[in-house]
Amino acid sequence: MNFLNNPANKANAQRLRREMTKEERHLWYDFFKTVGISANRQKPIGTYIVDFYFASAKLVVELDGGQHYEEEGQKHDERRDRFLREQGLTVLRYSNADVNRNFRGVCEDIMRHLDMEV
């Protein structure tokens, strides 16, 4: 799939990979690196950078901190999710609290969307 390529996002995506949140690191190293399916972290897609992207499943996984629950953050997420869906992608969103309190449940839900055994 050829997404709208935005070279300006490359440097920002690289910075975000270096500065992952605690929850992003937990999901990346303790789950995604172990499931045996290729994933990208902080992947530029159009004018956006998604937290995790599984090309083979056309799946985006987003982890949401507190700013996503403020009015402006919710509007931005709605625009972003609409764009990603228009590209044929499925978007899964989990709060940082979900990752911290129910890591196994988050992983199981993602596995279901990847059509993998839970």
The helix content, as a percent range, equals 40-55%
N to C succession of SSEs: HHEEEHEHH
The number of domains: 1
Let me know the largest β-sheet. Answer: 4 strands, mixed
Q: Would you tell me the overall average pLDDT?
A: 86
Number of E-state strands: 4
Strand % is 15-25%
- Could you give the distance between the termini? 28 Å
Q: What general form does the structure show?
A: globular
CATH topology: Endonuclease, Chain A
Radius of gyration from CA coordinates: 14 Å
Tally of individual helices: 5
CATH class reads Alpha Beta
CATH-wise, what's the superfamily? VSR Endonuclease
Structural class: alpha+beta
**Spatial order of strands in the largest sheet:** 1-2-3-4
The name of the CATH architecture is: 3-Layer(aba) Sandwich
Summarize the helices and strands and which ones pair or pack.
Blueprint (H helix, E strand, L loop, with lengths): L7 H11 L3 H9 L9 E6 L2 E7 L4 E6 L6 H16 L3 E6 H6 L1 H11 L5
Parallel strand pairs: 3-4
Antiparallel strand pairs: 1-2, 2-3
Notes on the structure:
A hairpin with a 4-residue loop joins strand 2 and strand 3. The chain contains 5 helices and 4 strands, in the order ααβββαβαα. The longest helix is centred in the middle third of the chain and has 16 residues. The termini are far apart. It has one domain: VSR Endonuclease (Endonuclease, Chain A, 3-Layer(aba) Sandwich), CATH 3.40.960. Strands 1-2-3-4 form a 4-stranded mixed beta sheet, sandwiched between helices. It is globular and about 35 Å long. The protein has 118 residues and is α+β, with helices and mostly antiparallel strands.
